[in-house]
Records
---
Amino acid sequence: MTIAVPAQIAERRSLKIDFTWPVLITFALLLCVLVILPVTWLVIYSLSSVDEVTKAREFTLAHFANLFTDPEFVNPLITTLVVAVSSSTACCVIAAPMGWLVARTDLPYTRAIRALVTASFVTPPFLGAIAWEILAAPNSGLLNQLYRFVTGAEQGEYLFNIYSLPGLIFVIACYTFPYIFVLIANALDRIPGDLEDASAILGGKTWTTAWKVTIPLALPALLAGVLIAFLQAMILFGSPAILALPAGFHTMTTKIWSLFQYPPKPELAAAASLPLLVVTVLLLRGQAMILGRKGYSIVGGKGADPRLIKLGWFVVPAMGFVAIVLMMPVFLPYFALFNAAFSPIATTLLTPLNFTLHNLHFTFFELSSTQVALKNTFILGSLAATLGTVLALVISYITAREAVTGHRFLGFLATAPIAIPGIVLGVGLFLSYTRPPFVLYGTLWILLIAYITIELPAAYQQLQSAFRAVHSELEDASRILGATRLRTLRDVTAPLLRTSVIATWCFIFVSVIRELSAAIMLFTSETKVVSVLIFDLKESGDLGAIAVLGLSMLLLTFTVVILMNRIPGFGGTRLRNT
Amino acid sequence: MKRRITRRDVLKGASAAALTVYASPIRASAPAAEAVTPALIEAAKKEGRVVWYTSVDLPLAERVAKAFMTKYPGVTARVERSGAERIFSRISQEYGSNIRAVDVVNSSDAAHLIVWKRGGLLQPYVTEDVAKHYSAEHKDPDGQFASFRVFLCPIAYNTNLVKKEEAPKSFKDLLDPKWVGKIVKAHPSYSGTILTATFQMSRDIGWQYFEKLAQQKIMQVQSASDPPKKLALGERAIMADGVEYVVFQLKEKGGPIEFVYPSEGTPLIIGPNAIFKAAPNPNAARLLQQYMFSAECQQLCIDHGGLRSAHRLAKEKPGRTPLSQIKLMKDDAAGVEKESDNIKKRYTQIFKV
């Protein structure tokens, strides 16, 4: 008898292998390849050059010396800083009061306002930039035409010139303000009403309370938002390519991109990428420090609903303010795109008389790249969303349950790509995957890798917080009853996380559709995606086709967003949190 | 005396060098001309598709592809359009990574064909039309490429914004302060047309012209087919360069746009077509090449596209100024090839982008 028992156990083990470890190790390795490989190649390239005689790679600091002395690079560097500082400041000035109005006052239609902010968040910034060209190009722009019509100003006079530094800053601010708005509104949503009640009991008037209590509590979120807005402005590629180049100046991203034109200078491009990477890392550290202190804002306990300030007659200017702000990223650009799609000339006002389906026909039945691009975008969007969600799910499981030693490092790797701007990642992936052992350039795989890497941090953060909400005792029960870790994950944890998982999937899908800066470095003719196709069309000035493709892109995006909001118990809050 | 002889020798040498681009009789070894045979059509249909990398303005390129598909149903032609310089770097990158996607190429920078030919990338193939109806200066002696399209890179203006008598007559006129902020111009790092034109203009009127033009607050676009579109929108009054054929298209549709063939001469652009040796669809590529050099396709490009043609049977459209009446700058693909990188670099220094 005593001999038989160990034999039985041995038999059972050989039948039921626990795949946990192999799976975990595979994912860890995968993550290392995804993140570390491109960055390593970037560093190697930026610090070396090919000797013309021996063809060997040699160490040099020449690229960095070049970068910080040649005005060809110094000027874009300065421009980038100016753009990032001014647009994040502008965003802050606009988004903070708006967030406060929506979260803390009795302003009507707040659901609609939040939905419209989401709309400006999912609108690809390059599409917005093109729409703003149609609106505010100095001579043909619709708004300038209106200005001349109303004031009787001479031909050649204009109100706005979008091809300028202020124009660029404005358009970038239009599509980065949602980041600040969301953080501010969420922070204000969470501030408990008791603190304000206390202030009121002590005799503080409404405005005193707002000034002395509410606003200071929201300040950390505001600072974090400003940092993110700064970062976004710094790493954008599409808007400066569309608005700065015609005006005759570069930002760092367009400069890096131009270094890949023939004859390509990958070493310089790698060197020019690294400052963006370093600044991003520093800013994110700063943000983490600020957000780390945020805890004090909810010290007062929980329960009481936020106290809404009565606006009274002030509701009229407040509503006007919100309406004007939302005109800029949403109403006006969408109108411009619609006009360009159905009018014979993009900047001629659409009337029933000149309505035409020509652009629609051209885009869908004549343009031979449309089908390929739509197909690729759809395949990549769904694959990246699926694989990205799985990857984020496993990693966040490991880190939330501290399943393996070194889980912290895995968590760090999964968040690290957030510090890699799209165009920098594009350069890194190009350098990594155009050589053995991984020759992936020219296939959809390289784009898939890029998209997954870019979207991983957000997906990981979403799912990790979801995991934290599910207590591990349910899993423990399953393990005690004999299930393996994987089976537990599948049968117990996954069903509990369903809505978060679906939300993450949708989030990645939408983000992939609007990604341009990495794709522009990695596409080939057969692996073109819609965003790249739009950029191609932009360079040859085919505005009608751009408008049609852009509107189709928005349609697809909104379909996904609305479906996501239909999921019971989800209600759209998740997207606002990202 | 001695000095003059030397100079003349140099000139002779230069023109001889320019000629050798197309006509080096010693090494000439073009294959025999081939006709469209039922076997070729069958083989092309079996492949089912063909990919044309081109810098022809998109709607025209798609129109040519569509006409080809109508004539040879069963073969899908896909157009991959970008600026000629982009197409060139795209192909370099793809071939560098062992990707063979391109079947047939068309470039508005004839120098690219020299580079590809030297690299042994091109497939010698001569269509009957090319053999019979194209003059020697419009075909490679080794049968590797021929001039698919010929066009100019003139000045043009928006007639609503500029009166005819005030319009510039020459490139130098564009330097007048009254045009500050009113000029649109394309980029030689994107467009082969502009690279070729910049080469010819810097050779004939000097780089000082560009240095002064850069002071005019020009609007810098990428593609050479964009400046005419910006004129038609009314976004700028004058284009300093851009493709002639899109101006023809817009003007003949009633757009407010008019040509100026500048007094210094107008840059002449030749856009050759070639088949790649490693084409994934070799037979469909040959069939497309056959179609594109036919009088039928060339006439379509003239009538609907505003291009000019090297095909002897193709007829110029009435109402357009014939090439013979326009003062042209001399094209020199070999010269462009040598200067290409330098032009891009210098241009970027002058115009900052």
Note: The longest strand of chain A covers residues 48-50.
---
Amino acid sequence: MTEKTDNPLWMSGNEAIALAAYEAGVKVASGYPGTPSTEILENLSCYEGVYTEWAPNEKVGLEVAIGASFAGVRALATMKHVGLNVAADPLFTASYTGVRGGLVVLVADDPEMHSSQNEQDSRNYAFAAKLPMLEPSDPAEAKELLKQAFAISEEYDTPVLFRTTTRIAHVKGVLAKGEMLSSLVIPGIEKMPAKFVMLPGNARARRVVVEERMRRLRDMTENAPFNIVEEGDSRRGFITSSVSYLYVKEAFPEAKVLKLGMCWPLPEQMIRDFASSVEQLYVVEELDPFLELHIKAMGIICHGKDLIPNQGELNTAIVRKAIDPASVAELFAPVALPMRPPNMCAGCPHRGIFYNLSRMKLFVSGDIGCYTLGFLPPLSAMDSCVCMGASVGIAHGMAKALGDDAKGKVVSVIGDSTFIHSGLSGLINTVYNGSSSLLIILDNRITAMTGQQNNPASGCNIKGEAANAIDLEALCRAVGVKHVDVVNPHDINASRKVLDKALERDEASVVIARAPCVLLPEMKKAVHLPYRTQVASCTGCMACVRLGCPAISWNPVSPQKAKALGYKEKQKGFALINEVQCNGCGQCQALCKFDAIVRREA
Amino acid sequence: MGAQGNILFSGVGGQGILLASEIMAYALLAAGYDAKKSEVHGMAQRGGSVTAQLRYGDKVYSPLIEPGRADIQVAFEMMEAVRYLPYLHKGSTVIVNTQKILPPAVATGQTSYPEDVLNHISSLGMKVVLVDAFDLAREVGEVRTANVVMVGAVSTFLPMDASVYARIISARVPARFRDVNLQAFAAGRKVSQ
């Protein structure tokens, strides 16, 4: 077998997008981590000549990118789909101001909710904000299309939305390096009040410009290189975009296909011509019937969500079965197995707090992060989770709704990064409007869930260089919280006393549970003396097992074996610590009343 | 060329599935194939069931393996060899690391580990290759190379020379772990040869 002499790149969609942003001459990029978008900025931060940053939230990230565009450089804002909700405010008005340097807003949707709380379809934002949106189907196309997005942005004086999904962002594929591009815009301060100052008078004038721009974009899409008709058997014709295109190509390789690289605005004449050239027209798209609705609004008859599911991801099998049910082969039946849900890591500081909360008969208003796993058994210590920052406002709302009945019974729990993202304004409200709900900030010094990104409380920037670290205690006091306690969550018994006391208060209080994430590089490098079980002393009380730590397992024994081990005959088993997995946090030792857990000596 | 195939990697977060699937992907690319690989990050990484799907051929469109069309499954944990059974077909080869990692419901004593899973796969007509990857990795001196042992075991079912993998492994692991990883690969390859 011969080997290829050229050297193709093997990259994820997110790596490809970072490379494309670099090649497109992006100078400023800002965003907030969110699966599946996170690795774009992480990778882009490694290229020379591009300023990258983690913003406290997506709204700020987009505003930074708008500012860079106003200054005449190419700019990129990245976020996950729910982040675009946060950034929607600047987005809708940036549509009016337009740009100077090319501005691309990258949004990564998560159909199937692999790591999200909803599966909204961000294409609706393109329609609502009157903005063009490009959609690649794989990493190689993402790279080419992103570079075109910057050119479109500058030529049509518009922010460009760029939508990926999990199966583009986290798919690896083959692609090639490309040429370096640059903007024709000259950076500098330009005062353009009629364009940049969106007071009603100016905005009304820009509103007209927006419509004219969309008309010009519609004309452009009719001949754009990314909207392609692939000839084939015209008995079935498919209009599709994004990763759905790939599933159509595999399920119906012979069929005629109109592949849209731009899902808004749509090339109406191209769609009409295509529709009239095929016998049956199918629109295949994930999530909402976005293309379908607009195609039907043109008066074109087509199949769409009458056959294709509007929930979850598609794949080749789903597309084939929806359109040609007879073609589906029989599959092996699944076998019922114990579930293997994600779990907090061994030594995770969050576990200590959730263990306490699980014993306290409280309503726990939760938030978005690793700690949302506190919902899962055996701790089962989270009672609501809606969106970033919501925990604080929801707890306050419950406290106001129930008055004295809620006193000492409602707490909110939020991570350090999520608190800075959008929890702080909730805390301001709690203090200003006076409720006694307790806020627990789980400060593990990092944005952990998305894979260890620094944040404004970590003390480092995106490149790991020293940066200001927010003093969370001072911040909480500054907004009017009089009672701010700091606890070590690994010290379960001491933390419990502080929590109990805080719940008795008649005014807002904050408990900061501070211990670093065990996945931090410095924590991984550190030598942890693991704990081990003195099996002979274990009484099988299961106190440690109830922590749900992955390093602790329960080993059932028969009455005979119990006797042989020197246990009481009725002892059902014993707990065992896996010393390889143990990170030495000591939470289990604090719970053992029989001295059966000891630390290994150095 | 003209060959195509689908390799499903399954296991538990933290077992090194991503590196193993990367080595396989680079080996297939070196042999001139087109390839695509799908991974899920985020929530799925915290000790949960993890898969990577690797597809290769002259031209690969979809990044996802269709149910019933995985030709090879590389299972890094015993029970995870059967979790994705609907993806397999009668002619599939299932390479299983016989290591057991207890899921939470088993670790907390609520249910027991399903011990007979491999018999079930064999009874469906599939070829099952057992690899004690953890033990072999320990023998070469580094338990964390169990994932590379698995790469070695699967390598005999693909057309590339062992030298292709050796080059890729050498390029992709830190220099101080190179030799131990090459030994791990060789140990795994021996199991299935």
Note: Chain B has eight helices and six strands.
---
Amino acid sequence: MGKTFVEKVFSNKAGKDVKAGAIVSVEPDYVMSHDNAAAIYGTFKKIGVTRIKHPERVVIILDHEVPAPKESSAINHKEIRSFVKEQNIQNFFDINHGICHQIFTEQGFAMPGKLIVGSDSHTTTYGALGALSAGIGRSEVAAIWATGELWFSVPETLKIVINGIMPKYITPKDIALHVIGKIGSDGADYKAVEFSGDTIGRMTVPERMVLSNMAAEMGAKCGYTPPDHNTFDFLRGRAQSEFESLYSDDDAIYCDVLEFNVNDISPSVAKPHTVDNLASVKEVEGTKIDQALIGTCTNGRLEDLEEAAEILKGNKVKVRTLIIPASRTVYKEAVKNGTIETLIDAGAIIMNPGCGPCLGAHQGVMAPGEVTFSTANRNFKGRMGCRDAEIYLGSPITVALAALTGEITDPRREL
Amino acid sequence: MNSKFEGKVWKYGDNINTDVIFPGKYTYQKMEPEEMAKHALEDLDPDFISKVSEGDILVAGKNFGMGSSREQAAIAIKYSGINVIIARSFSRIYFRNAINAGMPAIIAPEAVDSINEGDRVVVDMESGKIITPKGEFTFPPYPATVMNILKKGGLINFIKSNI
């Protein structure tokens, strides 16, 4: 009987054959954390160990509250900088870099076959590069810092097959929202998701990152895409180390296989207050919005900003429009190719790379009764800092178009 | 960790997410667990924290704790006085965070259906039994790794005792 991708990674790590359902204690290749590293360090010290066991496996990227919006955040950042020095952590990226998942990938830490964990639920993103990457809690990161290892249960795998040529105005975000709406926010709870199909095969790495990122919203442990020439091209000159690509065997056992055809998928929207509250954009057309947000670890890459700019070019936005490039590299590219100028001319506000308003910690907070249409991955009540506000989620295309009209608008009709 | 819990039930629905359990705006503020507890379920039921008493039991529908990896969502519930959560299912990271915080997260869909808010319920970890006013239900025992972490009162204590 063959093995799935995750069974292979955990078998490699455990040094013995393991199957779904087993519990193993293994050593991750990298452990990522962000602004919560200060709290993690506090927990680490309680364990009673003085040195991080493998500082070379630790990656810390400040992105959640950058630049510090208040004194307490500044103290947080200061503490992190101090112990980074003390523990000789080389892989540290200060507030001028960008969103952790983007930086981790741009810097080549996300590689095929690696086991990567992070104290952030969207750590699933690195599955786009063929890694097994999962979100964990803060104490778990502290435990890895101290001992190098952590317990995992080996998950079953749900295969999601996407076929068909993506029609115009359908993006990976629409596919993700559609799939989540169909299978529910717990549709892949405790499971590994493996993306497959000819649509995925044609996707670029940044496009695949949208799906792997959103795998967290299905409850998945990870969102793996089998590495191919697109993956290897992306990693050339970037990969931090050698890597071994791992693939599920042909006779591997999946707990389920779900097939979708992109021709059956409309531009999609998640309505308040859950990501699986799916609507086609047509069903919510005319919903007035107060704020548009284009960015975040889901949709803040160059392609996303370019799609928005194409729609906004030569026009003026009707609502406050916040644009957040996912990283300094994305920002610079978007400046160089004129995308940023187009967005500024349209009246958008360009913010510094980071998580921005997505989690409600600072920036772009709404007043009660207001509505934001966002390219982020979550629309839970209170998510953006106000429990009496509403969040709709969509693709950069639908959000940019709504910024222009002031209401949710079907791109198939307007463009 | 005790092996037996008895308490009054507070019951909530499906898909209770981490943002309503412990709002994101507090996530990067340094807080002691007692302070976190003051915000437990703040955006779902602002009265929860004034109603709950030490030893109470939280019962919820499917996918409890979906969303963020924030550990405070488990710690806030624990320090509000809740000793054990029974749900139809848990989100993966929340389940881990609860165990790692030393708070049993028990998957027992049939028990959840039969329990009403205000019921007094007994949970016996050793025998894997939940005793409710409407009858007795069983749940599968935890794997040894998980049980050992709970017995030590959470992951950090577990590691301390193993170093």
Note: The longest strand of chain A covers residues 157-163.
